[in-house]
Design brief:
With 217 residues, the protein is of the alpha/beta class. Helix content is 48%, strand content 15%. The longest helix has 16 residues, at 70-85. It starts with a strand and ends with a strand.
Length: 217
């Protein structure tokens, strides 16, 4: 049975918060202002300390995509990745992904963001699978402004990762998971091997107590 290797995206494979990078992209094309940037910075601060209501924030953000075509968002995220994200992809993250692929492991990005944000990174690193928060798409190919439950956060990320593992003939409880965030504790506890990368303060303290591997990318 192949083993699964799961990688978080923000502050793990990518050294920055991609929400901050996306708001910079929006400002560059005239779709956001300094108030929008300040709001995202506040959300990032809450995320850093593991106290954010991620599903609530995601619901607010997704409402802003109502009426946009799925094709348009995918193309936009490709452009955003090329211009703002790719330079921040961690070299040690690239190496870790390449090592798991060489070993024949099933590699997936497991992120709370959308698949449209994660897929350009997945393609760049040769990762075939993405676990992410899905946006509801109507029959006309446009977003409804709603999320498909469960959101890939906390236990919702565990549920989505378990579903992927089952579909690929592997076991989540035999997997390895790389992440920076205390909010990923449910998935960390569901896998066999935990690798804590650039951890936030709460996760760092917990990893030290439990003897988990801590790396700096």
């Amino acid at each position: 049975m192949p083993r699964a290797a799961l990688f978080d995206m923000d502050r793990t494979l990518v050294r920055k918060e991609t929400a901050s990078l996306y708001i910079r992209y929006q400002r560059s094309i005239g779709e956001a202002n300094w108030r929008d940037a300040a709001r995202v910075s506040y959300w990032v601060l809450l995320y850093t300390f593991g106290v954010i209501d991620a599903p609530g924030v995601a619901a607010k953000v997704v409402r802003g995509f109502e009426g946009m075509s799925e094709t348009a968002l995918a193309a936009r995220c490709d452009d955003w990745f090329r211009r703002y994200v790719e330079e921040h992809v961690a070299d040690r993250g690239r190496a870790a992904v390449a090592r798991h692929l060489a070993q024949g492991d099933i590699v997936a990005i497991a992120t709370g963001t959308s698949p449209y944000a994660a897929r350009p990174l997945a393609r760049r690193l040769g990762i075939a699978h993405v676990v992410a928060s899905e946006l509801e798409v109507g029959p006309d190919g446009r977003f409804t402004g709603k999320l498909v439950q469960p959101v890939a956060f906390g236990h919702g990320k565990v549920a989505r990762a378990a579903k992927l593992a089952e579909s690929l003939g592997t076991r989540l409880d035999e997997a390895v998971f790389y992440t920076d965030s205390f909010t990923d504790l449910p998935l960390l506890e569901a896998v066999a091997e935990q690798v804590v990368v650039n951890p936030d303060p709460r996760l760092y303290r917990l990893a030290r107590r439990r003897g988990w591997t801590i790396e700096r990318w």
